[in-house]
Amino acid sequence: MKRSIYLPLTAVCIIxxxxxxxVNQADNVNSSNGKNNNHDQLLQKDxxxxxxxxxxxxVHFYMWGGNEFTNRYIDEWVxxxxxxxxxxxxxxxxxxxxxxxxxxxxxxxxxxxxDGSVDMMWINGENFLSAKQNQxxxxxxxxxxxxxxxxxxxxxxxxxxxxxxxxxxxESPWSKAQFVFIYDSSKIKxxxxxxxxxxxxxxEHPGKFTYPAPPDFTGSAFIRNMLYETTGGADQYLMPVDExxxxxxxxxxxxxxxxxxxxxxxxxxxxxxxxxxxxxxLYADGAVWMTMSYDPSHAANGVKNGNFPETTRTFxxxxxxxxxTSYLSxxxxxxxxxxxxxxxxxxxxxxxxxxxxxxxKWGALMAIEPxxxxxxxxxxxEELDKGEATLPTDVLTKHRVPEIPxxxxxxxEERWLENVAx
Amino acid sequence: MWLNNKHLLYLLPAxxxxxxxxxxxxxxxxxxxxxxxxxxxxxxxxxxYYQKILFSQDFWDSLLLTxxxxxxxxxxxxxxxxxxxVCLFFLSLSSKKKHNQFWQKFFQLPMAVPPLVTAFLIVLLxxxxxxxxxxxxxxxxxxxxxxxPILTNDSFGWGIIIAYTWKEAAFIALMLQPMLSRIxxxxxxxxxxxxxxxxxxxxxxxxxxxxxxxxxxTFIVFxxxxxxxxxxxxxxxxxxxMLPVLSYSLYxxxxxxxxxxxxxxxxxxxxxxxLIGLIAYRLSKRWYTNEQGGW
Lengths: 422, 295
Hints:
Chain A is of the alpha/beta class.
C-alpha cells in the first residue's frame, strides 16, 4: 500500500470509532431520562381521542410470515376494513421468526432510535419474555382497549400469563392455538395416541417421520410435548426454572426418547428440517407421512390450497397437546402507538375474530370469549365449516395441556442441540 | 497531497462507505462480543465469551466444515472458471464476434442470480424429490427416488459446494476476462510457427498470465464462501453448521445472553478472513516479483 492511503484510512477509522462511542452514549442518555412522558399521556386519553390521533396513520405490523392463510387474512380481510372504518393503513411485514424483530428492537434501542420501524407485532412465549426483560415493550395498554373490556376474560390464566410470565397488559390477546399432528390417512390407518406408540410407529416406518429442528417454533413445541409425555405430565414444570431441583435428570427420558427414534427418522436423523415450512414441503412431496402444526386448521388449509393430499387428517395425543394464547404488542419506540392500539382493538372485535375463526379465511381459535358474544354472532360462529381435516373444538379442548414457563423453552432448545442434534 | 491523486479521490466515496460501515460495525460488534451491551444492561468487559467459544466442540466442528466447504468450492469454482474462460478465448478466435459475446453473457448469468435463488434452484434440481431425481426415477435408472444420492442437506456439504461452484465460476471467468483480452489472436499464430499446440500455448503463455488474477479472484471467492449465510442456511445440516449460520442461530436463539457469543464468532471470522487474505496477498506478490514481473 502507498503511504498516501494511510492518512484517509486513519481518518475514517477515527471517525468510525467516534460515531460508535457517540451512539452508545446516546443510548445511555435515553435510558436514564424519562422517555415515556408523551406516551403515558396517550394512555390517559379517551378512546375517541386515540381514534382521532390514529386517523390517517400507517401501522407497520411485524408478524411471522410462514402461513399463507394468516397472511391472506391480514391482507385481504383486516387491511381493507381497517382502512375503511378507521382510516388506518396496514403494512404487514413478514418475518421468518419474530425473534428477528426483537433483535431489531434491541438494535434500535441501542442506537437511541425513538421513532422505530415497528408499530405492532405478534408475539408470545420466549419472545415476550425476552422483550419484557429488556424493556422493549411500550406499556400497559391492553385493558384500555374497549374490546378487551367487553369480550376478553381478563382473569383467565391463559390471558394473564404468557408461558408463565405475567402479561401485565404489555400485550393484548389475539389468537389461541393448539399443537396438532397432521397425517395422511391413506397411508396411516391408526395414528399413534402417545409418545410410545409414536416411537413404535416411527420404528416400523423408517424415514417417514421427522420434526423441525428447534429453535423453530413448531419443532420446539414438539419436544416440549414429548417432554410431558416421557416425564409424566406438565404440572411439574409449572414452577420457575431456578426453583427446579435436578432438572437435568428429570429431563433425561426426553433425550433418551428422541435419540431412540433418531435412526428411524427422515435422513436417519442426520439432519432435521430447519423450519416447519420445510417439513410441510416434505409431507406434501410424500417424503414423510406426518407433519405438525401449532395451528389446528393448518391441515385443512393445506388441503384447500392443494398443497396437502385430500386424505390429510389431524390427531392429538391422549394425554393432550400444548395450547397457547398469542398476543399483539406495541414496542417502546413505535411511531404510531395510537394507530397500533386502534388496530389491535379492531382485530379483537367479534367480527374480526369470527372471520379469523372461519377456515375460509384462516381458521384460528378466538381469543375472545364466545359466551360474551350476541346470539347472532354465536350462531355465525357455530355455522362455520371447519373442514374434514380439522378436529372438532371439543376434542381439541379436551386434550389441551398448558405451556411451560418461557425459561424452559430456551433451555430445552439449547440442550436439544447438545443431546440430540450432535 | 493525497487529494491531488485523482484515482484516490474517485475511490474515496466507495472506500469511506465501506470502511465506515465495516469498521464501525466491526468495532460495535467487537465491543458487544466483549460483553458490553448497555441495551441489555450489561456493562462489563471480558474475554469470557471468546473463552467459551474456543473451548466448545461446536465451534471447532463448524470451523472445520466451513474451511472445507470454502476451500473446495473456491477450488472447483476456480478450475471451472478458468476452463470456461479459456474455452471462450479459443472460441472467440475461431468464430464470429456476435456468438462470442452471446456465450460470454451466457456464462456470466449465474452472477446475476441471488444466492437465495441459487439455493432454491439447487434444492429443486438436486433434492431427493427434485427434478433430476424424478427424471432418473421415470427412466428407471433408480428404483425409487430415495435411492438418488443425497446432495442437499448432507453432512459433507455437497449442496453448498455445488451452489457456490456454479455461481462463482462465472465471477472467476469475469475476473480473468481483462487478462485474456490482452492476448492477441496473432500470438497463437506466432506460437504455431514455433511448433506450439493449443495445450502448450495455454501452459506457456496463458496460464502464467492468468495465475495472479486467478489467485486473487479465487481468494475473493474463498472469503465470500467462508462468510456466506443464505446458501449454507438452506442447504446445510442441523449439526454441524457453517460458522455464519452458527453465529446467526446463536444471535436469534431466545434471549440476549448468547449475543456476545454470536458476535465473538463474527469477530473470529473477520480475523480469519484477514489472515487468509494476507497469505494470498503475499503469495501473489511473490509471484509478481519472482516469476513474471508485473505485466
